[in-house]
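Let us work through a complete example step by step.
Step 1: write down the sequence.
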Amino acid sequence: MRCAAAAAAVALLAAVMSVSVVLHAGARRPLAKPPRAAALQKTDTWPPTPQAKGGANLTAILTLDGPLAFRTFLGYLQQTNLVEVFQNQACLTDPGITIFVPVDKAFAAVKPSVLSGLSSLQLKNLMMCHSLAKHYELADFEGLSRIGPVTTFAGGLYTVDVTYDAGTVHVRSRWADAKIVGSVSVEAPMAIYELDRVLLPAALFHIQPPVAAITDGDVPVPRRRR
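Step 2: predict the structure and record it as tokens.
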């Protein structure tokens, strides 16, 4: 009887030790890595396609404050078929775009004959002169001010000088000294800044065109909308 009990105890002890060894081995086992095929699986949005970069809608952005604030500039963009050009530069290229948008009062200060006397190509170049073929945030203008004339989206004949002084940014063409008075939208890939004057490059105007003076009271209060 005692032999049978002893044998049973030995068998029980052996079983317990066997289970303990199995559990101990399992605790030290490294986590299984996922199959290689699963690790390399791509989704429809990776890597990003040009269309996935952003869905900037220039027309919608320029009408955020209602139909009047940038009506003139938007009208010229539509007239010269530049809305799609600007949006393609923003969404289908890596650099993006920066657009300087004069307020309606700035266009009103330019004599009507100045712009009406331009050809379709000249008007298109004037609008493109109000943009840079790269996305710039406001802080980037400090570095941009150190490199001299900056070529605009209109090409090498159309340059502007950017100055930065304690957060105040001026964009100068031959016959205009415009100041950024607000940020319409700064989200990549399309940055849009509000100007208090229309840029008038020497490539289009060989002599100073007639422009009415704009006082500080005519300029909207600087603001950031988006």
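Step 3: interpret the result. The chain has one domain: 57-218.
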